[in-house]
Amino acid sequence: MTATQDFTPQIPNQAEEVEQLHRSWRHPRGVLGWLSYTTHQAIGTRYIITAFIMLLTGGAEALLMRTQLARPNNGFLSPDRYNEIFTTHGTTMMFLFAVPMMEGMAIYLVPLMCGTRNVAFPRLNAFGYWMFLFGVLFLYWGVFTNAAPDVGWFAYPPLSGPQFTPGKRTDYWAQMITFTEVSALCVATEIIATIFKMRAPGMSLNRMPLYVWSLLIQSFMVIFAMPAVVIASSYLLSDRTVATQFVNPAEGGDPILYQHVFWFFGHPEVYIIFIPALGFVSAIVVAHARREIFGYTAMVLAQIANGFIAFGLWVHHMFATGLPQIGEAYFTASSMMIAITSGVQIFCWLATLWTGRPRLTTALHFIYGFLVIFVVGGLTGVVLASVPLDWQVHDTYFVVAHFHYVLIGGALFPLFGAFYHWFPKITGRMMDEKIGRLNFWVLFIGFNLTFFPMHIQGLMGMPRRVYTYPAEMGWGPLNFIETIGAYIIGIGGILFIANVVSSHRSGRIAGNNPWDADSLEWATASPPENYNFEYLPVATSRYPLWVDRSERAFVTGLRNDRREALVTTLMDAEPHHRYVFPASSIWPFITAIAVTIGFAGSVFNPWYIVWGSVLSGLALVGWFWPRGDSEAES
Question: By Cβ atoms counted within 10 A, which residue in 526, 543, 604, 623 is the most buried?
Fold first, then answer.
C-alpha cells in the first residue's frame, strides 16, 4: 500500500475500480435484502429515524401531562393514566430516544471521520439496531394493550414490586431495559474497535477529532454503566416473576440496594447522553468559527475527566435516604468537582468563537443557545449538590427544572445543531436557514417558558409526580405558563419536521463540503456512497481538510472487488493489515428475533429464557457459518 497526493486522484482505470466498489458494496434487493443491510450509513439512519420518532412520541406524552397540570383539579387525565404517561415519557426519553439517537449519529459519522468504510463489526451493528427496535415495540405493545408501566422511569421498589403493582406492567418496563442495553453495548463495542483499529493512516490519538474522542469516552462509559441497570431491572423482574428476594422488602429484600445499583448507571447515563453532545459542539464551533479549537489537549483531558467523575456522583440522587454523612460529603464534593471539567470546555469554546470568524448559521445559533441553557442547568446542579438544600427541594419541581435544563439544554440543543450541520452530508441538500433560525428561537423561547418557572414552583413546594393539585396552593398560574411553553416547543418541532421534509425534497444542492469544514467526513460525496471513500485518506494534520492540497494523501493497494478496509495501529494509526468486512446478512435479524422470543417470553414464563437461548444458538451458527471469500465479494 502506498500514499499518493490528494483525496480525489485521477489515475488509470479509476472508473473501473469505482464500478468494482459499487458492485462489492451494493445493498441486496427486496424485503429480505432490506432486512440484511449492514452498512453503517443504513444502520445509523435507522437509529436516527427511530429515535426521532421516539422523541416525537415522548414529546406528545409531555404535552398530555402539561395539559393535565395546566389548571388545578383538572380531570383531563385519570390518576392511573397520568402515571402511565409519566412513566412512558421518562422511559422513552431516557432509554429510547437520547442514548439511541447519540448512538445513531455515532454509527453514521465515526467511520467517516476516521476515514474508513464501515464500523468494525457490521453484523453486530445490525443486530444492535434490531434489538433496539424490538425493545421499542415491546414497551409500546404494553402501552397499546393497556399494560403500560406506571411506576416512573426509575421503577423504585417497593412500589414497583408485586405487592403494589400486580400484573405485567412493570415487567414490560424491566425487560425493555434489557433490550435497549444489549443494543447499547453492541454499539459501544463496535465504536471502540473502529476508533482504536480503523482510523485513517496518520490519524494518531492526538489528531482525532474531538467528536471521535467524545464517542470513545462515551462507549467506555456504556460498557461500565449499562450492566448496572440490567442488573437492577433483573433484580426487580426476578422478584416479581420467580419470587426472589433481592429488592422486595416484603420478602426481606433491600430497596436501597436497588437505588444504588440503578443510580450507578443513572448518573453516568446523563453523561453518556451529554458527552457526545459536547463532541457535536466542538465540531460545529470549529467548522463555523473557521478556527482550530482552542486548547485541544485541555478539551480531551476535560472530557476524560468528565467520564471518570460521572461514576462518582450517583449518591447525590439519594441524599434523602439517610446515608452516612461522611459519604454524603464525598458525593457533594464530586458533584461540585465535575462543574470544573465542564467549565474548561465552555471556556475553550468561547475562546475559539472569540478569536475565530464565526458565521451565524442555524447550527451556531443552537450552540449559543446550548451555552446559555447549560450554564443555568450546571449552576442549579451545583446548588443541588449541597445536602441541606437538596433536602429542601428533593422531589420537587426544582429538580425537574434542573435535569431538563441539563438534558435538553445540554443534549437536545447541540443535537439540533448537529442536524443542521450534518444534514447536507447525509442528504446532499442544505436546510433552509431562515426557517432554521425561526426554529431555534421558537424552541429557545418555548423551552425557557416551560422549564424556568419550575425552579420557582419547586421553591414553592410543588412536588414531582403529582397528577393534580388544589387551587389554594397557588401553583396554577405558573403551570399554565409552562403548558403554553410546552406547546410552543411542539410548534418548534413541527417547524423542524417541515424544514427537513421541504429541504430533503427541494433544498439547495450542498456539494461535498458546504461549510468548508475541517474533518474527513466532508472529503466524501454528499450523501456518501456505501463504501464512503474511493481511496482511503491519510490524515496529515489534526484538521486534514485545512492543509494545503499538496500535503494531502490517500491509500492505494486495497482490493475493490470485495469489502476490504485497512486496520491500523492503536496509538499512531500506522497501517497494519487488511481486513475484509463480512457481506450483508439476514442472520443478525434472525438472531435478534430469537433473543426477543427469550426476553419477551420470560415475562410470562421463565422457561422462555431456555428456549430463546436454544433458538439464539442456532441463529448464531448460521451467523458465523464459514462461507469462504466468495461471501465477502458479494
Answer: 526
Q: Give the three cell numbers for residue 452.
A: 424556568
User: Positive or negative, the Cα torsion across 363, 366, 372, 374?
Assistant: negative
- Give the DSSP H or E segment for 2: strand 2-5
User: Of 479, 424, 435, 489, which Cα lies nearest the Cα of 456?
Assistant: 479
C-alpha cell at 404: 431538563
Of all residues in the chain, what percent carry a pLDDT higher than 90?
A: 86
| Cβ neighbours of 80 (radius 10 Å) | 11
> What's the pLDDT score for residue 8?
53
What is the separation, in whole angstroms, between the first and last Cα of the chain? 24
Q: Which of 150, 318, 177 is nearest to 237 (CA)?
A: 177
Q: Is the peptide bond before 158 cis (omega within 30 degrees of 0)?
A: yes
Burial label, 86 (beta-carbon count in 10 A; 0-12, 13-18, 19+):
buried
- State the chain's mean pLDDT as an integer: 93
User: Nearest 5°: CA angle at 232, between 227 and 233?
Assistant: 100
pTM of the model: 0.95
pLDDT for the residue numbered 3: 44
Find out whether 82 and 167 touch, Cβ atoms under 8 Å: no
Q: How far is CA 255 from CA 182, 252, 318, 331, 383, in A?
A: 25, 10, 12, 20, 27
For residue 11, name the pLDDT band (cuts at 50, 70, 90).
low
Give the pLDDT confidence score for residue 633 in this predicted structure. 36
All residues at 6 or more sequence positions from 140 whose CB lies less than 8 Å from its CB, including other chains: 57, 88
SS (H, E, C) 424-446: HHHHCECCCHHHHHHHHHHHHHH
Say how far apart CA 283 and CA 271 lie, in whole Å.
18
Question: How far is 594 from 611, CA to CA, in rounded Å?
Answer: 9
Pick the closest to residue 99 from 131, 143, 141 (CA basis): 131
Q: Write phi, then psi, for 577 (nearest 5 degrees).
A: -160, 170
DSSP code string of 162-183: TTTS-SSHHHHHHHHHHHHHHH
Q: Within 10 A of 169 (CB to CB), how many other CB atoms are there?
A: 21
Note the pLDDT of residue 543: 94
**Averaged pLDDT for residues 369-392:** 93
pLDDT beyond 90 at 501: yes
pLDDT for residue 554:
86
Grid cell locating 11: 489515475
